[in-house]
UniProtKB/TrEMBL annotation:
Organism: Nonlabens spongiae
Annotated ranges, domain GFO/IDH/MocA-like oxidoreductase: 131-216
Protein name: Oxidoreductase
Listed GO MF terms: nucleotide binding
Residues in Gfo/Idh/MocA-like oxidoreductase N-terminal domain copies: 3-117
InterPro entries, alphabetized: Gfo/Idh/MocA-like_OxRdtase_N, Gfo/Idh/MocA_Oxidoreductases, GFO_IDH_MocA-like_dom, NAD(P)-bd_dom_sf
């Protein structure tokens, strides 16, 4: 079993602590939090071992899970990698691309594994259809959340939209050509509602909307590609795959046939895959254990996390230029 430690015992940090403690792949050594009073309360309530010295915790582990506020990600990541330990770090990877690139450089230099916590990659609905998304040419996403003061220290792009940015970059095999965006700060000092348009060199276009002041929750993505439409509901963990093929000569009474202006007939059919239920956070942590033990590429590499951050920062930069 890999010895694991957690930096940060906030809302998400406590979830990571519980899952690492339950996992058969890890031995939870303990955790560190910058607030000693809060940390001691967590230790008393849950029984996890609190380390008041972050360096001693890192030294006692094989892998460190960084779940601190984003502003501390770079400092924590450097400390972990400098100590020769594998790094799991929550999204966004860092505040700047330059900071992220330093983590990449350090991990390569020391031959260490690094993974970014982009949990929607492990959503069972997305996992069920990601291999079926083939050269999409138009993508539309909506990620709406009710207001929660937690996370409002950063733009809604880094808080919510980055999930969809990462998912899109994972299925579009092309470089980003152009980014345009608009955002509005309604209740926070940073935008609470944002819309972005990402254009890729291969002609694919993605239109993303994110809001953290909505009256209802929504996390949906739709992918349009040649002869197929794929819908993913990240919230309800449901998918819909609608495909088209050449219409058969022998047709049943219930076959759905479309004819275009040129007289070409296509048959519409549903091709919905089976969704395997999972705990997405536990899944991402345990696949990181696979990468460490088998010396393979993590599912969401530090490079992937940096690419998503780069696009997110381009979107935010366009807000300021309006």
């Amino acid at each position: 079993m890999l010895k694991a430690g957690v930096l940060g015992a906030g809302h998400l940090g406590r979830i990571h602590l519980r899952l690492l403690n339950e996992s058969e792949r890890y031995e939870l050594v303990g955790f560190y939090d910058a607030d000693p009073q809060h940390a001691k309360q967590i230790e008393k309530e849950y029984g996890y071992t609190y380390f008041s010295d972050v360096d001693k915790l890192i030294a006692a582990c094989d892998m460190i899970d960084v779940v601190t506020p984003t502003s501390y990600h770079h400092e924590s990541g450097v400390k972990v990698l400098d100590a020769g330990k594998h790094l799991f770090i929550e999204k966004p990877i860092t505040v700047t691309v330059e900071e992220a690139q330093e983590l990449i450089s350090l991990s390569r230099k020391r031959n260490l594994k690094g993974q970014v916590g982009q949990v929607e990659r492990f959503n069972p609905a997305f996992k069920a259809v990601s291999s079926r998304i083939d050269q999409p040419m138009f993508i539309e996403t909506h990620r709406l959340a009710e207001f929660n003061p937690r996370g409002t220290d950063v733009s809604v792009v880094l808080d919510l939209m980055i999930h969809d940015i990462d998912a899109i970059l994972s299925v579009v095999d092309s470089k980003v050509k152009h980014v345009s965006s608009s955002g509005v700060a309604v209740i926070s000092n940073t935008p609470d509602i944002a819309n972005a348009r990402i254009e890729f060199e291969n002609g694919c276009v993605a239109n993303l909307t994110a809001s953290r002041i909505s009256l209802k929750k929504m996390r949906k993505a739709r992918f349009f590609q040649r002869d197929a439409y794929i819908s993913v509901d990240f919230l309800t963990k449901a998918v819909e795959v609608v495909r088209m093929k050449d219409a058969p000569e022998d047709r049943g009474d219930f076959d759905m046939i479309l004819k275009n202006a040129e007289g070409v007939e296509k048959q519409i059919y549903f091709d919905n895959p089976k969704i395997e239920e999972n705990n997405a956070i536990l899944d991402e942590l345990e696949t990181f254990a696979d990468a460490i033990e088998n010396d393979t590429e993590p599912v969401v590499s530090l490079e992937d996390g940096t690419a998503a951050l780069d696009v997110a920062l381009q979107i935010i930069k366009n807000f300021k230029e309006l």
